[in-house]
Specification:
alpha/beta; 4-stranded antiparallel β-sheet; 26% helix; globular
């Protein structure tokens, strides 16, 4: 099973969950993007997580949101025309509960104009044969980007991604737990410049896969992105820096 590589005119893009469901009228940074990644989209509508929270720590923050979205059908009704008219290739990030949902969404999106790649995030705890089933369910006519928390890249099963049909791997935000102001533990994804050393190590490890590597965490200064490219990343995905601008 041979995965298709993604084609990028520029190495810059947004991370899923940062800029909505369609390309913005104005890109937030001076660097020209090579693709637009949608917010995570599930087959059916998904409500916000109970106890949504943002907890800061030195060097970043933890975000717990649950990836709320209106579901694939509503997203297509509202945004498919904008995808078709966009000058940027659209990558749809798929969020699913099981492989059948992934397969249904992937097949539905193959004929949608403007969609040039699929990106899938694996649920926490998914490994080995289970991960294989999810990834192969998305395999089809569109290039497939598998998003992994950067802390997982050295697990033995990850070496099988090329054989399972992945064309690229995106090293995304890892998960963690912090305590909020009320003393309650919050589980969520970690963001911020403190992740940069881990990202660079993960890029070096991911190069052994023989896939395109996309750096998707810890990039908050232009020189951080340059370091990621020099380490072997074919492209970078930016997250909270798109809301605030480059750090000095």
């Amino acid at each position: 099973m041979l995965g298709l590589e993604v084609d990028l005119a520029s190495p810059w893009m947004n991370a899923a969950g940062t800029l909505g469901f369609a390309p913005p009228a104005r890109w937030p940074l001076p660097e020209s993007p090579g693709a637009f990644v949608t917010n995570p989209i599930s087959l059916t509508p998904r409500a916000p997580a109970a106890g949504r929270a943002l907890v800061s720590f030195p060097g970043g923050f933890l975000l717990h949101s649950g990836h709320p979205n209106p579901g694939l059908n509503r997203v297509l009704r509202r945004y498919a025309a904008r995808w078709a008219q966009s000058s940027l290739p659209v990558w749809v990030h798929l969020l699913a509960s099981d492989p059948d949902e992934i397969r249904t969404m992937a097949q539905r999106l193959e004929g949608v104009e403007g969609v040039m790649a699929l990106e899938i995030g694996l649920p926490p705890g998914l490994r080995g044969a289970e991960a294989q089933e999810w990834i192969q369910a998305a395999y089809g006519e569109l290039p497939l980007v598998v998003c992994l928390p950067l802390t997982m890249v050295e697990e033995p099963w990850v070496a099988e991604l090329p054989r399972w049909g992945a064309g690229a791997v995106c090293l995304s935000a890892p998960r963690g737990i912090l305590v909020d102001s009320a003393g309650r533990p919050v589980n969520g994804r970690l963001y911020g410049p403190a992740l940069l050393p881990q990202l660079l190590a993960a890029i070096h490890a991911a190069r052994r896969l023989g896939l395109q590597v996309i750096a998707g965490a810890g990039l908050y200064r232009p020189q951080d992105a340059q370091l990621a490219r020099e380490a072997g990343a074919a492209a970078v995905q930016l997250d909270a820096v798109l809301w605030r601008g480059w750090a000095s």
